[in-house]
Amino acid sequence: MRDLSRPRLLAAFLGLSAVGAVSHVVTDAGVMVPQLLLVAVVLTVTAARAYKPGDPPRRAWIWLACATWLAVVGETVNAALGPGLSTWLMAVSNAMWCASLLDARRKIVAGALVPPLARAWRWALAAAVLVGLAVAFEVAWALRHGSPAYPHLGGARLYHLGFVQLCDAVVLVAGVWLLGALHPLWGGAAARPFLLVTAAAGIFAASDLVPLFVDLPVPRPWIRALIVGGWSLLGVAGLAQLELRRAMFASTADLRASLRGLGPRP
């Protein structure tokens, strides 16, 4: 199988990050609609073209695409009308992201003889669980004392923030769990798109944990930079899946051409 084009994926990551950064500077309010719109389009194309109907991983990308479109609508409503309906839209978006990786693992692993997790992946899963517990601790502390990173939030909006952060932790743990099962079955290249999705979850979890170290010199723009990077990785994950599917089709075509060349001759 041909390797994925790392330069193209890196260029896509830098381009999406630039769109997110410019949007933040121009709007002066962190509105991420242009970047989210691009990511949503990429994930929609991935869900439509990377797999045939009925392929196990296809529904995971559909969930991801729907989650991103809800985030687009939520950010747009928030910019136009302020918090309210957008809070619920973003909460549902994060729940869909959780469902995507949990469903992917269930579908992909259900029909395969999955070996036990290798030691390295067991350590990685344990580390992800520890990060998830740290996020849960931060959420519990914030609900009791208020969020030091977002002191203006309270009531329902604070509970919404906690729900979003817990979703990020669940996605991180589910993603590492899925990767541990995928790696020995399909090889590193096939697992790479989901590796990028899991890396995005890790970045979002890191942004959630910043309040734990609020006394350190970590300015608020760094939190926004982490979020921009996380969404950029999600878009690159969709492009990586499209590249992987294209490479698989090319390899299949080359194999068929070789078999035709070995056929009986007159």
TrEMBL record:
Asked if the keyword Isomerase belongs to this entry, the reply reads no
Keywords assigned: Membrane, Transmembrane, Transmembrane helix
- Residues crossing the lipid bilayer are 31-48, 60-79, 85-102, 123-143, 163-182, 194-216, 222-242
Name of this protein: Integral membrane protein
